[in-house]
Amino acid sequence: MKQQQTVPTVPIFGIPVSRLNMQQTVAWLTEAVDSGRPHQIITANPIMVMKALEEPAYMKVMLGGELLVPDGTGVVWAANVAGMPVAERVPGFDLMHELFKVGETRGWKVYLLGSTLEVIQATAARIKELYPGIVICGIRDGFFGPDQDDEVIEAIREAKADLLFVARGADTQEPWIARHKERLGVPVMMGVGGSFDVISGKTKRAPVAFQKLRLEWFYRLLKEPSRYKRMLALPKFAVKVLRARENVTKMG
């Protein structure tokens, strides 16, 4: 079996963020699927970095991921400030679609977990429409507690998925995948936040103008003002990066 290439990373306050571009990331994940070994992919953003710095248990989750992609604009900016730029931003939403494209040609099986039953059913239907070669091998809404974990894990194992996408919110989805990674045994597992809402058509992604200006976070805040408390981590992160500047890549 071919050995997977080592991922070049930049440590953002001790968290190793991938410097691969989108194309290289997809190639690495294709090898991950071929390997059959479980890999947790984490879409790193400033809110998650700040949470990890404040909560040792969350830091452990972040450090345990096999690949942390620079999903947040702030993470890309921090790498630039530190003098170790990443190749480009790798948004989790776009990465998921790139994996679907490859999966079409390879007959990959995909399991969707999270959100409401209505949203996840609509998401599965839309993925089949966009990528007919993809096999949706199972869906399950995200409304289950720890007492049902065994049942959910067993269903995913039986489905023999190549890709598992989990939409249960950043506070829940990454720790859940980390906790059960070996038992789940899926080659590529990734938390995708609100992506199912966008794919299903329940919500809209930020317009291209916002994406180009790297202001998707601001668009989400405008649409969901209740997110403001979480967003307070962004200025805190920016201040921390600017104060640390020379030490961003040296600090844990």
TrEMBL record:
- Asked whether the UniProt record includes DNA-binding among its keywords, one would answer no
One Pfam family cited in the UniProt record for this chain: Glyco_tran_WecG
The reaction(s) annotated as catalysed by this protein in its Swiss-Prot or TrEMBL entry are: UDP-N-acetyl-alpha-D-mannosamine + N-acetyl-alpha-D-glucosaminyl-di-trans,octa-cis-undecaprenyl diphosphate = N-acetyl-beta-D-mannosaminyl-(1->4)-N-acetyl-alpha-D-glucosaminyl di-trans,octa-cis-undecaprenyl diphosphate + UDP + H(+)
Xref: InterPro entries: TagA_TarA, WecG_TagA_CpsF
Q: What EC identifiers does the entry list?
A: 2.4.1.187
Its pathway, per UniProt, is: Cell wall biogenesis; teichoic acid biosynthesis
Keywords, A to Z, come to: Cell wall biogenesis/degradation, Glycosyltransferase, Teichoic acid biosynthesis, Transferase
Protein family membership: Belongs to the glycosyltransferase 26 family. TagA/TarA subfamily.
Q: Which HAMAP family match?
A: TagA_TarA
Function as written in the Swiss-Prot or TrEMBL entry: Catalyzes the conversion of GlcNAc-PP-undecaprenol into ManNAc-GlcNAc-PP-undecaprenol, the first committed lipid intermediate in the de novo synthesis of teichoic acid.
This chain belongs to which protein, by name?
N-acetylglucosaminyldiphosphoundecaprenol N-acetyl-beta-D-mannosaminyltransferase
